[in-house]
Amino acid sequence: IIPTSSSTSMSTMGTSSTPSPTPPVPGKIQNLALQRVNTTAVNITWNPPVSTAYIQSYEVLLQHRNGTQLDNVNLPAGSNLTYYLARNLVPYIPYTVFVSAINTDFVSGAAVSQDFFVQEGVPSVPPRNVTVTRINSTAIRVTWMKLSLEDARGIIVGYFISYQTVDSRTVSNTTTSYNMSSVVISDLRVGEKYGVTIACETEAGAGPASDIVYEPGVTLPTSSGSNAGYVAAGVIIILLSIGIILLIAVFVAIIMRKRYQKKFTPQVDSLGVETDQELLFYKSTNAFGNEQEDIVNIGHPIDISTNTLETKTEETETMEKIPEEPQYVNSSQLTSKDQHDTPGVSTYT
């Protein structure tokens, strides 16, 4: 009888094998970087972990900041520098990329992430919930709520803070880093009260500033009192405008009246003829065969008295009726026919 232990030992010796070691969990990838290709694409690069043993691939996960997944790819490990080109992205929209190493047992290491934009813009809104608290006679604390990347529309590089006295005689500025949501402003003037505005900045520029917020204890003029000066100034401007318009209207009326009078008030000379009318004189032959001048008005209608025309006509007829002096010729110079055909001619011998 063979001892059980011996048989077992022999059986084990005949069929024994060395078990495979369990691969370690991959380390984090290194030097994750993004390079914009254009306004819709970005190139994602990284370096492998410190130890590359048992690493067979890399997982790249691309998603919106709201969690919507866009890409999820596995890239084989084969070089010390790997990359992935993300396409069909939208400007001013924040994205997040996650990259992790995977070993031969398909175990993923810790992911490294980074937020990015393919194209940045200025923030669309100012920081919210701004408060100002007095610390001592020369210092105040300012706090605010940081903007989301959706509102920032770009990677935040910092916050721009402007602070001033209530009477605005002193205005100063300071900036903070992108990850801060409060700051202490010191070296202020003793006895002065201050107000603060804040704006968020991206690489594309600064967005709108918040409304000015004063520290507690500041009493500002009421809106009606502060606007009284503007209302009075507005009334004065309106009255001056009306006065200028009336003066212009009167001036234009005077000019038009003078032109009207000049146009429709005839000027009559000593002969009774209107001198400011355009008249046309032309000659014609009357019923007696005598020439006379007729007057035609080619301008505005005028009233030339009948007496004037009759006087002119009578003068013309009187001049025509003046007897001509008899002409004397030597009868020896005329023929018998000339003596009978020539009226008004006396002959002498």
How are the SSEs placed, and which strands pair?
Elements: H1 4-15, E1 30-38, E2 41-47, E3 55-64, E4 69-76, E5 82-86, E6 95-103, E7 112-116, E8 128-136, E9 139-145, H2 149-152, E10 156-165, E11 171-176, E12 182-185, E13 194-202, E14 205-206, E15 213-214, H3 223-264, E16 279-285, E17 291-297, H4 306-321, E18 327-330, H5 336-341, E19 345-348
Parallel strand pairs: 18-19
Antiparallel strand pairs: 1-2, 2-5, 3-4, 3-6, 6-7, 8-9, 9-12, 10-11, 10-13, 13-14, 13-15, 16-17
Task: Supply the number of helical segments.
Answer: 5
Low-confidence stretches: 1-15, 304-313
Quaternary: single chain
Roughly what percent helix? 10-25%
Order of helices and strands: HEEEEEEEEEHEEEEEEHEEHEHE
Number of strands: 19
| Beginning-to-end CA distance, first to last residue | 213 Å
Average pLDDT confidence is 77
Main sheet properties:
5 strands, antiparallel
